[in-house]
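Exam revision sheet. Question 4 asks you to relate a sequence to its structure. Input first:
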Amino acid sequence: MAPRAITPPATSAPSSEALLEFPDNFLLIDLCGEYDRNLAVIEDRLGVQILRRGNQLVIMGDDTVRAEAAEVLRGLYARLEAGRTIEAGDIDREMRMGKSEADTAPQSGDQMDLIPANRVEIKTRKKLVEPRTDAQKTYVKSLFANELAFGIGPAGTGKTYLAVAVGVNMLINGHVDRIILSRPAVEAGEKLGYLPGDMKDKIDPYMQPLYDALNDFLPGKQTAKLIEEKRIEIAPLAFMRGRTLANAFVVLDEAQNATTMQMKMFLTRLGEGSRMVITGDRTQVDLPRGVQSGLRDAERLLSRIPSISFNYFTSKDVVRHPLVAAIIEAYEADDPPS
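Answer key, structure tokens:
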């Protein structure tokens, strides 16, 4: 049963208070979190005060933020009723998304079976991944719906993480036979030659973020086995030349560091039954001075093709530490992109 809003008598509570009653006291304990830490997060973010009285929560604050806090608490309680847990990311997501979840509907067409209804969710072997902003939600839907999609925006917005999650989902559900993850091995102020070991040892540090994402969605032994069987490949962009990538989910990360020729080479690898995702941040180009970023050229040349999806993120979509968004905004204000 959903939490019930109580309108207190005028003599018992001032107008700056709202009461929510929760029928299951055990779920209410989980909602509040250990030492009420979940309530503390909501209080800090929304500028309200939340007090617990038995199986009720009293929300104090201005009308607008009080109503927003009540909506967040209802959403989190519904999550617990569905048998799920509440983590810090879930609280952040509920505060960002709120009522917008209700507007998601299944899409028609051949890909309808791939697109989750209502809430947008990505099921993997280890966890259920949910978009935490409206831009992320639109991006995930486009990954399911389009054979070629771009995710462009600053660091920390989940472009690569969500793309890998969708790839894992499609692999375990049999929609693709393999996952191919690639990055340009471009030096960001450091020299590959100074790193110890053979070529694989030198390249692996560049690929580590892709390994990290995979390990979030698949058990370690399963990841290792799939890599051994070549059902998951992680390789530098240069290794893609001459291949035709059929029945695969293909991700090119850090695409702003691909040259125009490399981008054309990569895009033309797309084969039958495959999907391709290109992610990048136009503000972090590490190419030599005077070399045009292939990501910029791809935007210019391909943006009018209807079956190609371009998805854009801003600092408001950063889902890392809140300071990351502030840092990005400070740099953008000092040197706005051309």
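Marking note for examiners. The first strand starts at residue 4 and ends at 6.
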